[in-house]
Structure formats: C-alpha cells, structure tokens
Amino acid sequence: MDFKKLANRYKTELLDSVLPFWLKNSIDKEYGGYFSCLDRDGSVYDTDKFIWLQGREVWLFSMLCNKLWKKQEWLDAAIQGAEFLKKYGHNGDYDFYFSLTREGKPLVEPYNIFSNTFACMAFAQLAKATGSEEYAEISRRIFKRILERRGNPKGKWSKAVPGTRPMKDFALPMIICNMALEVEDIINDPQLLEKTIDECLHEVLDVFYQPDLGCMLENVSSLDNSRLDCFEGREINPGHNLEALWFMMNLGIRRNDKALVNKCVEISLSVIEKGWDKEYGGIFYFLDSKGAPQQKLEWDQKLWWVHIESAIAMIKGYQLTGNKECLEWFEKLDEYMWSRFKDPLHPEWFGYLNRRGEMLLPLKGGKWKGCFHVPRGLFEIWQILEKCE
Q: 46: helix, coil or strand?
C-alpha cells in the first residue's frame, strides 16, 4: 500500500472539497449558526437548527485551527456558531435544547444529553483556539452539568415509566470517553478527569462489552448491568462499537496502556467481522444479538458515519499494533467508501445507502448528518496514514 499517496487523497478531499462545501453553504450569515439540511448541490432545504450539529461544526473548525493551522476563515466560522449557541442554545442552566428555529427560538426541550456533550466539546476546542476564558468556563459548566445528569440523562423528559425496565445506554459512556480528552486542557481538575475516564472505561469494557458476543450491546439494565431480552436489550450497533473503540485506543495511548490498545483492536476485529454484510458488502446499521427480527426498519441501511468511523478504527489499529487484519479491513472499507459514498458530481459524501450500496437519499446534510463525521474522518485517516508511511 502506498501510504503517502493514500494520505494525500484524504487530505485533498478534506481541504479542497468537503470543507469548502460547508463553508460555502452552511453558514447562516443573517442569524448566525449553521444550516445543516443541505441538498446534494448544497442548497438549503430546511432552516431548523439542530444543536448536535451546531456544536459539532463549532468543534470541527476549532479542532482544525488547533491541529492544522489557525486559518481565519475556519476561526470565524467557529466563533459565529459558538456565539449563536451561547445566546440561544440552552435554557440558562446549560442544558441544551435539541433543536431551534432558524432565528434561535427553542423547538424541542433539552431531553437529549448529547446536545450538552457536543456543546461542551465545541466550547473546549474553541477556548484553545482563541484563548478565551469565557469559552473555557462555558465548557467547564457544561461538563459539570453532564456529570450531574449522567445517572438520569433524560430526567423529567423521559417517556419511560419509572421502575418497570430501567435501562442505561452505551452511547453515553462512549461519548464521555472522547469528551474527556477534548476538555482535559481546560477542566483544571485532573482527579475528576481520571475518575471520569476510569468509570467510562469500566462501563464500556466490563458492562456493555459481552465477551460471548464479541461486541458491546447498546442497552443493559441500570439495576444490575444484566442483559435484557427485549428489542432494546438485544440491539447492537457496529458503528457505535467501532467509534468507541478508536476513542479508547486514544485513551490507551494517553495512558501508555498497551494492553488496553490491544484489547480494543481485538474487539474491533470481532465487531467488524460480525457487522459486515457478507452478501452485499458494507456494515449493517443494527444487529440483533439473537438474530431476531428487528424493530428498526433501517437496520440494513449502510450509513456514512458507520463506515468512516470503522475505517478510523481499522487504520488506527494497524498503526498502533501492526495487525495486518486491520490493514486488510481498512483497504476493504476504503474501497467501499470511495466507490459508494463519494458523490461523483458534487462535493461532500452521501449519507444513506440501501443494503445493496445504492444511494437512498441524495442529501448531504439533514437532522443527523452535518459537518462532522466525514471531515473528522478524512482528517483522522490522513494523519494516521502519514504516520504509517
């Protein structure tokens, strides 16, 4: 494999195609913040603003300023998004709404704690990029609020009847693993940070990971961490698994813990083998741990984020351990992504394919897809490939 040539392909796609697409089409110059609902050519088809995607775009441009170079266009894009979030995004207690109108009026209550996590990451990265103590303090306050809500994330907005089947989900400890590294420089509380990381690693690897399945479940009982024989309790999301595993590889690097890295690589290979569609190629969106019929009709769709996050996990696994299986899987994912998700006519990648790998929706952004997984993935893979070379 020509790592140098491949690294340049990811770099060029990021800098010359994907980032210009978002800078040109997503910034709301009238009201601030970003449009995320962009059609195939970049035209705006809906103006509602989803806090996950607002925070992610602030984070993305701030991160690039910190890790590549402080390009004024990137910094300006991040600051205007952060100011919109600061003014309209939360209820005053740093619980962030799920969605807003274009002008910034709240539409959906702050039921979703991931609105908080992405806002926390956004203000932390922007604080580093600008040196702003105000942004750092906002991130610290959001981080504190996330830890307060962690035991009951939806709180009064939960629609589940208390006590009947209490569950906790894998996504929260997974994202906190990543968020901890994002806020490390500004939290000023090393003990709290290490305690938080320890708790999340324990949750992911000792609670949600099921050795007999070779992967993590999406939900377990919050009473005793046991499996639940219901739709939610049997659910496996291979993309979530693999995204979490490269986050934890980074924690292994940070702690110089080779055993943690090796375990993450071992589980990654098990997950991708389990999640790969042997008939049509690509990774299934959802699996049932017992192979039962699923409640989610989109279970067999092939999604952009699942594949690019899996590609990061595989190439990072190869870089850190030299495991040739990881490299083989990366090559397979690389071929699948560039031949299926990349739009041959317009910048940015498609998000949703059917099981056969055919374009299902032409959109480049929507309620869930924004300026995040594709550019972050291109950046991460470019950087790792350069190290491999």
A: strand
Quick one: average pLDDT of 273-299? 97
Reported confidence tier of residue 188, pLDDT bands at 50, 70, 90 = confident
Selection from 147, 222, 208, 207 nearest residue 179 by Cα: 147
Specify the pLDDT at position 264. Answer: 98
**CB 155 within 8 Å of CB 149:** yes
Residue 65 gets which letter from DSSP? H
pLDDT score, position 172: 93
Interatomic CA distance for residues 215 and 236, integer angstroms: 8
Q: Across all residues in the chain, what is the average pLDDT?
A: 96
3-state SS class at 355: coil
From its phi and psi, is residue 361 left (phi > 0), alpha (psi between -120 and 50) or beta?
beta
Extended beta strands in the chain, E state: 37-38, 44-46, 49-50, 99-100, 106-108, 167-169, 209-210, 215-216, 219-221, 235-236, 287-288, 302-303, 352-353, 359-361
Distance CA 251, CA 16 (A): 31
| Residues near 189 by beta carbon (within 8 Å), at least 6 away in sequence | none
pTM > 0.90: yes
- Output the six-digit token pair for 253: 């690097």
b/e code 71-99 from CB counts within 10 Å (16+ = b):
eeebbebbbbbbebbeebbbeeebbbbbb
The Cα-based distances of 78 to 44, 57, 86, 132, 231 in angstroms read 20, 7, 12, 13, 39
pLDDT above 90 covers a percentage of the chain that reads 93
Mean pLDDT of 202-214: 97
205, two tokens: 């690897």
Is the pLDDT at 48 greater than 90? The verdict is yes
The H helix count followed by the E strand count for the chain is: 14, 14
Cβ distance 123 to 138 under 8 Å? Answer: yes
